[in-house]
Amino acid sequence: MIPSFAIALILAIAFDVHAAPSPHSSAGQTMHLTRRSPDRTPDEWAAWAQAQKESLRTKYGAAPSVARRGSGTNLIVNQNSDSAYYGSIAVGTPPVAFNVILDTGSSDLWIADRRCVTGCDGVAKFDSSQSSTFTNLTTSFSIKYGSGAAAGSLGQDVVQMAGFSVANQKFGVCDEVSSNLLYSPVSGLMGLAFSTISSSRSTPFWEALVQNGAWDSPVMSFQLTRYIGENNANTLEPGGTFTMGFVNQSLYTGDIDFQDIPANQESYWLLPLTGLTVGNSAVALPTASSNLAAIDTGTTLVGGPSAIVSALYAQIPGAVAGTGNYQDYYIYPCDTSVNVSMSFGGKSWSISPQDFKLTPLTQTQCLGAIFNLDISGTGSPAWIVGDTFLKNVYSVFRYNPPSVGFAELSDTAKAMSNLRGTVPSPTLGAVSAEVTANGGNTVSSTTNSAGRSINHWAPLRLIPMALSIAFASSFVLVYL
Ligand SMILES: *[C@@H]1O[C@H](CO)[C@@H](O)[C@H](O)[C@H]1NC(C)=O
Ligand SMILES: *[C@@H]1O[C@H](CO)[C@@H](O)[C@H](O)[C@H]1NC(C)=O
Ligand SMILES: *[C@@H]1O[C@H](CO)[C@@H](O)[C@H](O)[C@H]1NC(C)=O
């Protein structure tokens, strides 16, 4: 999902909160320090202060803020035949588990408040009065997506996921949620893009971890399962794997083809769309810099500029633009196997014909999964590349250097699709690394670190209502 009103913020600078690793303090070292002449340099004072702190920690047995580096896995759930993918977090003391959409297209965490009366039917709600570590920041919180909006207040508490913990994570506690935004058992959303586009101006959970060195490797990754077109698929099916701090080599083969995010554009996970083919025909594209794509696990389909999307469908014999309820979508003959490939500066990656075929409308007419989405504003992505594409690759989101990588799914990963396995229960893992988030973003200006202003998003059109009806048991989430 991508918020409609991404607040322009300067890139949060991660202050290095940890001094150089201080040697385990022995009495001898302490004596050595205390005997030194007092005219220390600031660095020496800092080292001394760290050594004092470490010796007290050792003495009293308190855990350091980063226990050790680590890596973790969250088994995710595929909801409504590839419409959405959610994982599990735990919030508060004692910890309470919640399911949240894992969304690389936005940067805020929020969950439904116990006071929520609309849009929260049947979902687990957060009761802040039951958490001894909750702090009400008494600031309002709101975020808008293409599919709806959520609003409430901003709070702070311990948040855990996949064996990681952030002691003072800021998040929205939402009592107003528009209908069709949360589908039970999902209670909220975990934004996995950069802090620059956080509506609450908070450091996202993942960024707090990676900035504080909690991860073995500065990456997170997704392997998403496919159930679309599977007639007997359940509403909830195993969704694949989300990892933090490592990539799981059992889930891909060959190399990960990393492509850098354009310089100083860490906001969404942006890559230029440099190649688009349908069958053997290339579709003409504008220059890379004006053709950025947000790689977005929180959006179901793939949306792009109508001029280019219509040129793509023009290559499919018998395809026509939809009208009425299907405006901005395209209808094509179901017996055509459509093979669309996309490249982002490197290798070309195919969307399987099965993923392209969103749903049959009649016996012979099918709806395509790539639709018109005209987003205006410089610096805005022209494309939203969602799960229709991401199911076909192992995707890696790398903090440093900022880049997105794709790799071929392994046979092990492919075998997890259409498997009809057991839906994972919340997988939180034992906490191996705990961090304290930096004291919020030191931001107030509307430019990023490079001085380039980021435009606010224009509100985007919602998915035509009738589409959710057409999909019978499935729904499409296009959160922009
Ligand atoms: C936080 O405090 C505000 C009043 O300042 C209140 O409206 C809101 O419901 C509180 N939020 C939570 C989660 O307790
Ligand atoms: C990697 O994925 C495989 C296949 O799902 C799984 O069996 C294995 O436990 C995973 N490894 C780690 C370290 O999570
Ligand atoms: C789709 O096209 C690519 C080349 O563009 C090819 O490698 C791949 O095998 C094709 N897939 C199908 C299902 O036809």
From TrEMBL:
Biased region (Polar residues) positions are 23-32
Annotated signal sequence is: 1-19
Q: Which domain of life is it from?
A: Eukaryota
CDD domains named in the record: pepsin_like
PROSITE patterns under this entry? ASP_PROTEASE, PEPTIDASE_A1
Instruction: List this protein's GO terms for biological process.
Output: proteolysis
- Molecular function as annotated in GO: aspartic-type endopeptidase activity
Quick one: where's region Disordered? 21-41
Name the coiled-coil region(s): none
Q: What residue intervals traverse the membrane?
A: 462-479
Keyword field: Aspartyl protease, Disulfide bond, Hydrolase, Membrane, Protease, Signal, Transmembrane, Transmembrane helix
Q: Active site: which residues?
A: D103, D296
Disulphide bond pairs: C116-C120
Where does the record place the Peptidase A1 domain? Answer: 85-407
What the record says about family reads: Belongs to the peptidase A1 family.
- From the Swiss-Prot or TrEMBL record, give the protein name: Acid protease
- Whose protein is this, by species? Rickenella mellea
